[in-house]
Amino acid sequence: MITRSVVVQSQLKQNDQPRPAGRTSVGVSFAASLTFEGVHQRFGSKDVLCGIDLSAEPGQILCLLGPSGSGKTTLLRIAAGIERQSRGRLLLNGEVMASESVFVPPEHRGVGLMFQDYALFPHMTLLKNVAFGLTGLSSSAARTAAASALERVGLSGRGDQYPHMLSGGEQQRVALARALAPRPSVLLMDEPFSGLDSRLKDTIRTDTLQILRESRATAIVVTHDAEEAMRMGDRIALLRDGRLIQTGTGRELYRDPVNLFAAGFFSELNVIEAEARGGRVVTALGPVATTRCDDGAKLTVALRLNGLRLGTGEAGVTGRVLSRRFLGGVDLFTVAVEGVDEPLRSRMRAGTVPENCRDVVVSVDPLAVIVFEKDASDR
Ligand SMILES: Nc1ncnc2c1ncn2[C@@H]1O[C@H](COP(=O)(O)OP(=O)(O)OP(=O)(O)O)[C@@H](O)[C@H]1O
Q1: Ligand 1 centre from 317 Cα, in Å?
Q2: pTM above threshold 0.80
Q3: Same-domain status, 71 and 193
Q4: How far does the centroid of ligand 1 lie from the alpha carbon of residue 177, in Å?
Q5: Do 256 and 367 reside in the same domain of the chain?
Q6: What atom of ligand 1 comes closest to residue 43's alpha carbon?
Q7: Is residue 152 part of a domain?
Q8: Same domain, 163 and 228
Q9: ipTM entry
Q10: How far is the CA of 68 from the centre of ligand 1 (A)?
Q11: Strand pairing class (330-337; 344-349)
Q12: Would you say 151 and 106 are in contact if contact means Cβ atoms under 8 Å apart?
C-alpha cells in the first residue's frame, strides 16, 4: 500500500485549458504508453522486483495483480517517480523517465496518483482538495476545472463541503476527481476500492471505469482481487515475489494459466495427482482429459470447484460427504474420495444434492480441468 506522504501533481499540457463551466466532462487526457524495461528493485539484500518488462498502451487499463508483497505498489511508485529503480528503464510515450542516467521528477511526468486511503486534506473544502494539483492554472481557472471535475463524478454543488461530511464512496469519488482534474496522461491507482464495503464497491467500480474510459487516460490499477482485475483491466499483469508470472486478458489468464499459482489466483481449486495413460489423464476420479504426454508421465490436475459435480445416479466414483454449507446460490461441499489424499471441495447449485445425502457420485466437468506437467506446475 502506498503511504500518503507524497501527492503527485500532474503537469498540465500547454493546450489543456479548463473547459467552460457547465460542461460535464473532466476533460480528455492525452493518453500515453507506459513501459517498464527490465526493471529491477533491490531493498537492502532483498530483490523486490526482478527484471519486469511490461507495457500499458495508450488509453488502456492495466491491472497489476498479485498477493501481498509481490511488488505491485513498488512498481507503481517507480512509475510515479516516488521510488527510483535499481536497474532498468521507465518510459512514457517512448521518452525515458527513469534510467541509470535520467530521472524525471514526479511533478514533471504528467502522471496522476490516487491513494488507497484517498489522502484528502481534512481542513480543505472538496473544491480546494480537487484544485490542489492544478498549480499551472490561475486560481479562478483552477476552481472552474475543479468544479467540472466534481460534477463529472456526480458531486456537483458539493464543493463547499468538507471530506468528513462525505461517505466513503463519495470520498473515493473526490479522490478520483482530484486525480483526473489535471488530465494526467497516465493515472496510477493503488487499491482504489479497498476501503469500500462490497455493495458500494460494485457501483463505485463501475462508475470509475466509465469515468476512466471517458477521460481516455491510460490507467494502472493495483489490486489483489482477481475478479476486480477481470472486471476493470483490459490487460492483467500477474506478479509473484517480484516476478511477472503472466500477462494477458482476464479470459486468457483464467482459461490458460501458465502454472498452478496463476490458476489458483483466478479460481479456487482442488489439486490432485494424475498420470498419462493411453493418451488420457488418469486420476482417482477416472480419466479427466486427453494428453499428448508419454505413458507414465506424472501430471498435476487442477479442478475448479464448480466443475466437480456431485449427484446420485450419474457415472462417476463414489464419495462420502464430509460437510455441507449453504452459501445462498450454491452449496459448498467437502467430499472424501478413495485414492485422493485430501477431501475435495465442490460448489453445487443450491438444492441440487438432496439434503442428508451421505454418499454421492462424483464426476468432473472437462471444462473445469487444467492439466500441468508435474515439474512445470509451479514454475
Ligand atoms: N522502502 C522499502 N524498504 C524495504 N523493503 C520494502 C520497501 N518497500 C517495499 N518493501 C518490500 O518490498 C516487497 C514488495 O512490497 P510492495 O508494497 O511493493 O508489495 P505489494 O504487492 O504492493 O503488497 P501489498 O498488496 O501488501 O501492498 C515487500 O516485501 C515489502 O516489505
Answers
A1: 46
A2: yes
A3: yes
A4: 27
A5: no
A6: 4
A7: yes
A8: yes
A9: 0.97
A10: 8
A11: antiparallel
A12: no
Closest residue by CA, ligand 1 atom 31: 69
pLDDT tens, residue by residue, 184-224: 889 999 988 887 777 778 888 888 888 888 888 899 999 99
Regions of the chain short of the pLDDT cut 70:
1-29, 314, 375-379
Q: What single-letter DSSP state applies at residue 354?
A: P
Place of cell 468544479: 147
Residue with cell 460437510: 323
- CA distances 119 to 113, 123, 129, 373, Å, are 11, 12, 10, 47
Where among 201, 226, 260 does a domain terminate?
260
Handedness of CA 197, 198, 199, 201 (dihedral sign): positive
Which of 239, 260, 281 is the last residue in one of the domains? 260
In a domain, 9, yes or no: no
How many residues does this entry show for the chain? Answer: 379
Q: How many domains does the chain have?
A: 2
pLDDT of residue 9: 36
The residue range of the domain holding 274 is 267-376
Position 310 scores a pLDDT of 94
pLDDT at residue number 315: 76
List pocket residues of ligand 1, CB cut-off 6 Å.
Answer: 1, 43, 48, 66, 68-74, 224
